[in-house]
From TrEMBL:
Alphabetical UniProt keywords: Transferase
One Pfam family recorded for the sequence: Rhodanese
GO molecular function, one term: transferase activity
Gene3D superfamilies membership: Rhodanese-like domain
PROSITE patterns reported in the protein's UniProt record: RHODANESE_3
Keyword rRNA-binding: no
Boundaries of every Rhodanese domain copy: 23-128
Domain of life: Bacteria
Organism of derivation: Branchiibius hedensis
Protein's UniProt name: Rhodanese-related sulfurtransferase
């Protein structure tokens, strides 16, 4: 079985995403995690490059349902039309969000692989990769 190409612009590492945010004036980081995650786990900090993170839940908490207004909320928060860099905890929800945005006519939607906290190690702890482990700026 062959793997098909993504139905979104592609995948970038956290470091590549940060570089794009630094270099592309219209690039936007869209954090698709839940309000609880933003509050208790933290957020990327883009103040050093003069930007803010756009926060729009892909799945609502606590019911886990897809946010029916997701595309419209992202469009309203990102009117510049530049690249959209989508971030979740580990890079799974952000793929679905990037696919939804691309299907809705926003083809410059990228998934940040590894996410904010990264994948699990052999002990079940999120400490193997991701935005935070890459040493990129964040705040809690």
């Amino acid at each position: 079985m062959t793997e098909s190409a993504p139905t979104y612009a592609g995948d970038v590492t956290p470091a590549e995403a940060y570089t794009l945010l630094e270099q592309e004036p219209n690039a936007t980081l869209v954090d698709v995690r839940t309000r609880a995650e933003w509050t208790y786990v933290g957020l990327p900090d883009l103040s050093g490059i003069g930007k803010q993170v756009v926060t729009v839940e892909w799945l609502s908490y606590p019911d886990g349902q897809v946010n029916p207004d997701f595309v419209e909320q992202v469009r309203a928060a990102t009117p510049d039309g530049g690249p959209l860099l989508l971030l979740c905890r580990s890079g799974v929800r952000s793929v679905a969000a990037a696919e939804a945005l691309s299907a809705a006519g926003l083809p410059n939607s990228y998934n940040i692989v590894e996410g904010f906290e990264g994948g699990l190690d052999e002990d079940g702890h999120r400490s193997v990769n991701g935005w935070k482990l890459a040493g990129l700026p964040w705040r809690q």
